[in-house]
Amino acid sequence: MSTIYLISSLPMLREDAPPPISPEQFLAMCWEQLTASEAAAAAQLLAGPAQKDPPVAPFVGRWRDKEAILRNAIAVERARRVGQDPAKWLRPTADCDVRLAKMAEAVLQERGPLAKEKAVDHALWVAADEMGGPDPMAVERVYAYAVQLAILTRWQTRSPERGRETFAALTEVPITL
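-> structure tokens emitted (177 positions)
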């Protein structure tokens, strides 16, 4: 099992390009080259924020915390703008990150929901990259890669057609007399 081999064989991810590897391929490589607990952590990170299982690695817990910090900062700013108390939208966090809070302010300066969502993902991309640490061959780099791959994969599943279909399904109101 070799983290170095895995990292050196992974294709480069670019924030503005489609993912060069599928999540399934990435996870298969993780299960081949990492320990079971490290591969499970990569799988948790790839699954995204909806994952409710307890973190299997400290990085996963710290990542969930970073994500919550960003989303909390956005919720606080939105609530402030409309004069409401943000408490019911906040998630508990173990840490604070002033830089992410500043990025949340930048997110809300964007026009339109698509631009805002891209700005959120950019902030998460940057946070994941920073959490990967300075050692390019550490397992934390694999974890950051998993987060970034999840971001790119999510954007690949979106298209104007699917958006219109979803909108139609959500707004279609059956008329019963």
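The chain is about 65% helix and 0% strand.
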